[in-house]
């Protein structure tokens, strides 16, 4: 840090005026809004981690603030990186977060002082009494601050391990901010996670659901957690309008939050709901998506009470019209209300979310007959293989979380929620002329029969724990004890039709009429997942060495039922331990070298109807990961490199008996490279590459030994740039490239799917109209209108073609 002799005792940072968006008070909450400073325009702020005094000088040069402080106030204090599009007040609050420093302000002049001395300052020879301003925790509350560029955050939550900076965790994580979601005009969670090369979507927009792949292993929407709880978001798709953050963990996450409902082991996705910021918010957004789909959104936020302790945040969304399939329609009605309280020791939040999706003309998946050896080219992205399909989905969720600091070093929490979901589908089934199941041939021909597939899900989810921080000599400890609970009842009804029509993927015909009788869903399975976990993170040498160790005891209780008779057909109760170990070494302040061992735990599969042991519930199984890597924070850009191995039992049918079971092993070994941040002021970067060597090992009788598992690409790339143009104030341009290499569609590697490259471009313009902040955004996905297949293993779907998206947001 610079010594006091290098600066005057009282300093004013140079003033630079930047014009951008003006942040006005919400008219919707005008009656409750307190008096505020004159309207301030959000500006692009980029300040790396450094001594606090230097950071304040940089803030003064990048905003309209003139900041006065003495060396005694800032001596020995460091500031973390602050970046993104923020008002000067917000940026200053983030720099001062946790320092105890008070600020007093008059216009653009801000004076900093130690606690208890605010209000009086000696400035250029005179004493000035200034208005006292309360410094709050910042616009994101307990969430980690955005990193340089504002697209990703400096940290995120890891369940029982708490919220940590990415440089202090022995895992590969990425945490996307709401700023990125808005600027890319993301519609659902799937549009967000593809920014990382290790994550790929297995289905296209407008399908029956959204499934993902992380490190070559599937992760279904049903395994996405919200605010740390499983089973409480839609099992089909998660709209981004409710999201403040999207947190992605690469690798098994069973230890952090317990076993996921469907046992995903490649990674974990947690979404964080919105909370009211200290600045009142009233934002209306109108959007258009080709072909003629319109969206309206209202986002209202307000804090009130003493010290802004109470907060309300409401989001309402209405969408409707023709979407990316010819003659198809896609609608969404959603309302989400979040309330929270933040006191000196008590923090509480609650959410209520109701979501209704309707899709007419569903983008469906198809399978191929076993004798197909050459895949036909992908049809146009707007072709609907099964005209006449329909999906309606209704989800209602309530959840709450309470945290209390018993002492400065002892914190307890309890969280719980309930979700009720219902789905009705007009569902196509490919058959032969006699009505038996048969997939598509090499020319794209098939026969289709219409069925009704309706289902429901009732889920209760909970989490509780206590965290203690203490020292034993020179060793620091963060000890956590936690428990999780999930109960999920799933039911379905499968109503089979009889009429059959011939069709083709290039010239599809309407599906035939469905069955005359539509059955009511009955209970098919009942799953209870309980766990207890204990962990300790030890810190040595002033936090330059961090060691994490823990174990989770998981119990799985599953019963399956005949949906016609209601009789219990099978079930099991089993328990297993999921240990974890990790180490972080910091040879320099900006370098972290890490390694981890983690185990995933997957509940047993209910065997499908095409196998001899149909209806059986297989026992849970374990997966193991070994990983090591290095992370370097260069100030405004962070780079990471990781190598890993994940091995899990492979589910497949015995070729002789047609009995499905866990025979053999799938082993994925990979290398991941990532860079994100702000290359220069106003030029944001987010790029990654992933390379996977996947292999089937220990297969029964050596069948397919050494082959690549179906659906796993050897390499993937994601690269994006976002640039604030210097010649037009408020105009930004962006582009993104997504590349996925070829995959096999079967384990014997006789049918492959070509790779694809997708290009996206966009622009946004921030301005003022009638004194209100307005942002116009325009994006084009798949700008070249490339036709390509997406694969979920053995099934494929045609990806959406060129898609235009326009929106206008106004803060009023």
In brief:
By secondary structure, the chain is mostly beta strands. Helices cover 5% and strands 55% of the residues. Strand 45 and strand 46 form a beta hairpin.
Explain how this protein is built:
A hairpin with a 2-residue loop joins strand 43 and strand 44 (772-781). This protein is mainly beta and 812 residues long. The protein is globular and about 85 Å long. The protein has 3 domains: 4-133, Phage tail protein beta-alpha-beta fold (3-Layer(bab) Sandwich), CATH 3.55.50.30; 155-273, Ferric Hydroxamate Uptake Protein, Chain A, domain 1 (Beta Complex); 281-367 and 388-811, Beta Barrel (Maltoporin, Chain A), CATH 2.40.170.20. Helix content is 5%, strand content 55%. Helix 1 (52-62) runs antiparallel to helix 3 (88-96).
> Unreliable stretches, pLDDT < 50, 5 or more residues?
1-39, 116-141
Number of strands: 47
Computed CA radius of gyration, to the nearest angstrom: 27 Å
- Overall geometry: globular
Structural class determined from secondary elements: mainly beta
Helix content: under 10%
Name of the CATH class of the largest domain: Mainly Beta
Task: Compute the number of helices.
Answer: 6
Keywords:
single chain; 812 residues; mainly beta; Phage tail protein beta-alpha-beta fold; Ferric Hydroxamate Uptake Protein, Chain A, domain 1; Maltoporin, Chain A; 3 domains; 22-stranded antiparallel beta barrel; 5-stranded mixed sheet
């Amino acid at each position: 840090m610079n010594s006091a002799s290098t600066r005057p005792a009282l300093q004013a940072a140079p003033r630079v005026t930047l014009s951008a968006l003006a942040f006005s008070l919400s008219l919707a909450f005008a009656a409750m809004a307190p008096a505020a400073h004159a309207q301030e325009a959000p500006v692009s702020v980029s300040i790396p981690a450094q001594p606090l005094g230097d950071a304040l000088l940089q803030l003064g040069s990048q905003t309209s603030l003139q900041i006065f402080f003495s060396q005694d106030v800032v001596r020995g204090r460091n500031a973390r990186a602050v970046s993104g599009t923020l008002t000067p007040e917000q940026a200053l609050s983030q720099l001062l977060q946790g320092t105890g420093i008070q600020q007093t302000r008059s216009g653009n002049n801000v004076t900093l002082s130690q606690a208890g001395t605010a209000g009086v300052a000696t400035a250029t020879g005179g004493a000035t009494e200034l208005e006292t301003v309360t410094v709050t925790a910042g616009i994101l509350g307990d969430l980690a601050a955005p990193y340089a560029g504002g697209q990703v955050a400096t940290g995120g939550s890891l369940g029982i391990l708490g919220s940590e900076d990415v440089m202090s965790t022995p895992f590969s994580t990425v945490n996307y901010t709401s700023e990125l979601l808005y600027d890319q005009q993301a519609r659902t969670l799937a549009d967000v996670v593809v920014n990382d090369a290790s994550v790929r979507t297995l289905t296209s927009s407008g399908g029956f659901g959204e499934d993902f792949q992380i490190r070559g292993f599937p992760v279904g929407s049903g395994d996405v957690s919200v605010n740390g709880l499983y089973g409480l978001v839609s099992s089909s798709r998660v709209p981004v309008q409710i999201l403040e953050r999207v947190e992605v963990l690469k690798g098994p996450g069973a230890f952090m939050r317990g076993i996921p409902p469907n046992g995903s082991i490649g990674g974990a996705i947690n979404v964080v709901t919105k909370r009211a910021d200290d600045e009142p918010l009233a934002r209306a957004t109108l959007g258009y998506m080709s072909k003629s789909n319109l969206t309206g959104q209202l986002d209202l936020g307000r804090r009130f009470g003493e010290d802004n302790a109470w907060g309300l945040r409401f989001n309402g969304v209405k969408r409707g019209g023709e979407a990316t399939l010819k003659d198809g329609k896609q609608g969404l009605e959603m309302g989400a209300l979040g309330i929270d309280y933040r006191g000196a020791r008590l923090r509480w939040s609650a959410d209520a979310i109701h979501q209704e999706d309707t899709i007419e003309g569903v983008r469906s998946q198809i399978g191929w007959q076993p004798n197909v050896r050459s895949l036909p080219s992908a049809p146009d992205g707007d072709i609907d293989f099964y005209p006449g399909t329909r999906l309606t989905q209704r989800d209602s969720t309530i959840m709450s979380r309470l945290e209390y600091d018993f002492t400065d070093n002892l914190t307890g929490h309890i969280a719980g929620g309930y979700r009720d979901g219902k789905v009705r589908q007009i569902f196509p089934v490919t058959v032969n002329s006699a009505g038996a199941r048969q997939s598509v041939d090499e020319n794209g021909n098939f026969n289709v029969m219409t069925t009704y597939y309706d289902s429901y899900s009732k889920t209760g989810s909970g989490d509780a724990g206590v965290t203690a921080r203490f020292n034993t000599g020179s060793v620091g400890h963060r000890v956590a004890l936690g428990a999780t609970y999930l109960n999920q009842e799933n039911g379905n009804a499968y109503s089979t039709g009889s009429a059959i029509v011939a069709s083709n993927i290039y010239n599809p015909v309407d599906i035939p009429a469905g069955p005359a009788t539509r059955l009511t869903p009955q209970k098919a399975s009942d799953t209870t997942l309980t766990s207890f976990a204990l962990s300790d993170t030890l810190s040595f040498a002033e936090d330059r060495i961090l060691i994490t160790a823990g174990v989770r005891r998981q119990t799985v209780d599953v019963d399956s039922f005949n949906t016609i008779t209601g009789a219990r057909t099978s079930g099991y109760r089993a328990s297993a331990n999921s240990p974890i170990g990790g180490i972080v070494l910091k040879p320099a302040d900006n370098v972290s070298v890490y390694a981890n061992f983690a185990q995933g735990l997957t509940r047993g599969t209910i065997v499908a109807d095409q196998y001899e042991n149909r209806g059986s519930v297989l026992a849970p199984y374990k997966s193991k990961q070994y990983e090591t890597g290095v992370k370097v924070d260069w100030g405004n850009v962070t780079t990471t490199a990781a190598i890993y191995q994940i091995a899990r039992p492979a589910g497949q049918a015995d070729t002789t008996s047609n009995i499905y079971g866990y025979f053999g092993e799938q082993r994925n070994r990979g290398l991941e490279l990532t860079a994100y941040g702000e290359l220069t002021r106003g030029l944001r970067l987010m790029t990654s590459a992933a390379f996977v060597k996947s292999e089937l090992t220990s297969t029964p009788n050596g069948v397919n030994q050494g082959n690549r598992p179906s659906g796993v690409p050897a390499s993937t790339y994601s690269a994006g740039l976002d640039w604030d143009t210097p010649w037009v104030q408020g105009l930004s341009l962006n582009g993104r490239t997504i590349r996925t290499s070829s995959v096999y569609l079967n384990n014997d590697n006789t049918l492959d799917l070509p790779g694809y490259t997708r290009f996206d471009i966009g622009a946004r313009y921030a301005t003022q109209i009638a004194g209100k902040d307005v942002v116009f955004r325009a994006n084009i996905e798949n700008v070249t209108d490339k036709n390509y297949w997406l694969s979920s293993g053995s099934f494929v779907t045609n990806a959406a073609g060129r898609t235009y998206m326009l929106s206008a947001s106004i803060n009023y």
